[in-house]
């Protein structure tokens, strides 16, 4: 499907850019992808997202849209086929609630696991486990947040599946407990096997190295 | 208009409950309002929002919806007359972007002005001024965020107008500068004169006392 000059500014290790790439793929929208150098951001990025100066930024019809969840809503409204959000207003509210929950609760905890040490690291890991357990309740007994097929909340949350596994292995820390979170563990398997969802996950070894480097840099003050 | 058994759980001083009350009023939806005692939350609140246990919670058709921005979207989708969000997807994205900006940037800074002391207070006030200046850019030269009439973003942001004035007066601190933010200052006057927006603003003196009491309680450890 013609994307009417759609362009996406992203970064390979950004879970937020990943959301937008998956959504565009699910809709079958053609677009130009521009990888950003976060140390030397392009004028397009700085002009397209003057408030946060962050990826992702979607450029379409001479306008720029930023904030990944806002972009997902935009994509779903402009290209109405293969809807990401369910039809029922209550189910739409549920999808938005869980996408927001991940950004507000899971992101800080999972970032904490990467950037903190000692007791603070333990605290972040504990919080991550608690939030993941809460997130599981959002599945409401179903295979995925979209019910029977990948939807808005799955697209928004899929990166969690990849990052949780990566953080567990890279930092030898347990975040998900198969016995305690069986539904979420099954969802993780499900989204990571989905061809669209897995297409945009960053190369695993590169992400591990990137995250370990980030951790070393950010914890240098504490550990030196 | 019949509200089909709509009920709202709120709290008089909650800017987030205020959003929902204004939205229901703009739509002309009849509803039952239940004031919560936040020290002794009702079973309806605890069951209706088990994740955050916070107001507002909207109850409708046996379902509960929480998170004020999610509730606003729900209201706009269930009762389609007098739409809060504009029709154009790009303008809808802009409305969502600024509502989200306020929650992510302005809320922590304005809470900081209430709860912090000394240098930390100065820092919060400086951040609040910067974020309010950025927020002004969202008006894009227009009278309100909805363009020519009160819309989704105005409903979401209106409380800022009231709280900024209140914090300035209660704590003798400048947050908004008429000369530096003329458009935002004009918007503040505009929303505070709007009959629907002002209807649900908490009684001023009661809010000042409530906020001063909160400040005393929260800063007691520091100032004793």
Automatic annotation (TrEMBL), chains A, B:
The alphabetized UniProt keywords are:
Transferase
Task: Give the GO cellular component terms, alphabetically.
Answer: cytoplasm
- Record SUPFAM superfamilies: GST C-terminal domain-like (SSF47616), Thioredoxin-like (SSF52833)
For this protein, the record's InterPro entries field holds: Glutathione-S-Trfase_C-like, Glutathione-S-Trfase_C_sf, Glutathione_S-Trfase, Glutathione_S-Trfase_N, GST_C, GST_C_Tau, Omega/Tau-like, Thioredoxin-like_sf
Question: What is this enzyme's class at the first EC digit?
Answer: transferase
**GO molecular function per UniProt:** glutathione transferase activity
- Listed EC numbers: 2.5.1.18
Superkingdom of this protein's organism: Eukaryota
One GO BP on record is: glutathione metabolic process
> What are the residue boundaries of the GST C-terminal domain, all occurrences included?
88-221
Q: Which family does the UniProt entry place this protein in?
A: Belongs to the GST superfamily. HSP26 family.
* Listed name of the protein: Probable glutathione S-transferase
Originating species: Coffea canephora
């Amino acid at each position: 499907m013609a994307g009417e000059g759609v362009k996406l500014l992203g970064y390979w290790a950004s879970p937020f850019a990943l959301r937008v790439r998956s959504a565009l793929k699910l809709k079958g929208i053609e677009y130009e992808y521009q990888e950003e150098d976060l140390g030397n951001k392009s004028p397009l990025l700085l002009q397209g997202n003057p408030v946060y100066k962050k990826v992702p930024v979607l450029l379409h019809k001479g306008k720029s849209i930023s904030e990944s969840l806002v972009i997902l809503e935009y994509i779903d409204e402009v290209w109405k086929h293969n809807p990401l959000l369910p039809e029922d207003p209550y189910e739409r509210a549920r999808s938005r609630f869980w996408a927001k929950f991940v950004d507000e609760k899971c992101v800080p905890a999972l970032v904490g696991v990467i950037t903190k040490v000692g007791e603070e690291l333990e605290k972040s890991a504990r919080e991550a486990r608690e939030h993941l357990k809460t997130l599981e309740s959002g599945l409401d007994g179903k295979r995925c947040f979209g019910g029977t097929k990948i939807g808005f909340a799955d697209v928004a949350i899929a990166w969690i599946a990849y990052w949780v596994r990566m953080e567990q292995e890279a930092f030898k820390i347990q975040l998900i407990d198969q016995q305690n979170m069986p539904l979420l563990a099954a969802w993780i398997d499900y989204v990571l096997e989905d061809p669209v969802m897995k297409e945009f996950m960053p190369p695993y070894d590169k992400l591990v190295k990137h995250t370990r480097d980030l951790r070393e840099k950010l914890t240098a003050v504490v550990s030196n």
